[in-house]
Amino acid sequence: MVDADGELVRPWVTWFIDVATKAITGTAVTPGHPSRASILAALRAALLRTGPYGPAGGVPEHVRVDRGRDFLSKTVLGAFGVLNSKFEDLPAYSPHLKGTVENLNRCVDRMLFAVLPGYFLTPKPRRAKKKPDPDEPVPLTFAEFTAEVLDWARWWNTEHRPAGLAGRTPLEAWQADPTPVSDIPEAALWGLMLEDDGRVRKLSSHGVRWRGRDYLGAWMAGQAGRHVRIRHMPHHDHEIEVCDPAGRHLGTAHLADAATPEQLDELRRTRTARARRLREEAKKAEVLRRQRFAPATTPTPAQRLGAVTAAEAARELAASADSDMAALALPDLIQPAPPPEDWNTPASLHHAARKEKR
């Protein structure tokens, strides 16, 4: 468990490894549940061989993954399609077909994770503690955990000598391999890692509209009416990238009228309390729904148990009726206004509108 912005979460490591040399080519760490954004971030690190990445990397010829839903998403499959990499989706429950990465996962668990604070083999039950345990180690922050993972990956590539490499490190085996490596320019890789909804939009004085929200950028001044397309990183709703219809990048736009950090904290607390309340109500409803029958020692018809009084049944039925928002809405109480004359509507509506006017 790590501390991610004041909340204890289980981090997830997504990485790519070269089968021939055992070199880790790309790593991404996500606090909490991963998504296709985690895969795209790890893939970008695996492709680039400049800056903080590399030297192992480049465009893969053949990629094998498990049947994870995010690996099979349209965005990830589209990225591998553009790279012209052979994509193999392994059958379920077949760790022996991807032994290289399974061995890497086992090694990092035993060599690194097991000695870090907050490590446990199975999820702990969620029980509120009356007093903090002074003997329990303080969990790492997400930044500290990420630094530990990246340092371990560097050690694995440059110092560790896995069996099967004739005493060499993965990096030495990579550099000694004469197989040519294909690289992709970072500028071209930028668009490959973003999703495109495929629609052409128009800039306005409020910026660009996407998913019911307005996004603004200083570069948009004086460009109202221009047609653009939106590209974005999955689940990164705070900003988007705006391109022209041909795909040329114009600039970044940020969410207009974004909620303050205080509002976001209060919203998270409210959502947590609502989820807890709904779980409790669901448990109570499940207990009430459970039907019990009387045991029998002779061939007799089944006898239902759980008698209630008429008053108890009436109260529960009334509470259920009050919770039905569709019934409370009373849709027929106020008749809707007739449609305007210039609307393209069925002839029956025009006939009804004429009768009302008369």
Question: How would you describe what is shown here?
Answer:
- This protein is α+β, with helices and mostly antiparallel strands.
- Among the domains are: 185 residues, Nucleotidyltransferase, domain 5 (2-Layer Sandwich); 62 residues, no CATH class.
- The strands form 4 sheets. Strands 7-10-11-12-9-8 form a 6-stranded antiparallel β-sheet, with no helix packed on it.
- The N and C termini lie far apart (72 Å).
Give me some keywords for this one.
358 residues; alpha+beta; Nucleotidyltransferase, domain 5; six-stranded antiparallel β-sheet; two-stranded antiparallel ribbon; 10 helices; 35% helix; 17% strand
Summed up:
The protein is of the alpha+beta class and 358 residues long.
- Residues in helices, as a percent range: 25-40%
Largest sheet, strands/sense/barrel: 6 strands, antiparallel
**Secondary structure tally: strands:** 12
Q: Please report the number of helical segments.
A: 10
**What is the CATH architecture annotation of the domain at 2-186?**
2-Layer Sandwich
Q: If strands are numbered along the chain, what order do they take across the biggest sheet?
A: 7-10-11-12-9-8
Report the average pLDDT across residues.
87
Low-confidence parts, pLDDT < 50 over ≥5 residues? none
Strand content: 15-25%
CATH homologous superfamily (4th level) name of the domain at 2-186:
Ribonuclease H-like superfamily/Ribonuclease H
- Please write the string of helix (H) and strand (E) elements: EEEEHEHEHHHHEEEEEEHHHH
Gyration radius (Cα, Å) is: 29 Å
Gap between N and C termini, in Å?
A: 72 Å
Oligomer: single chain
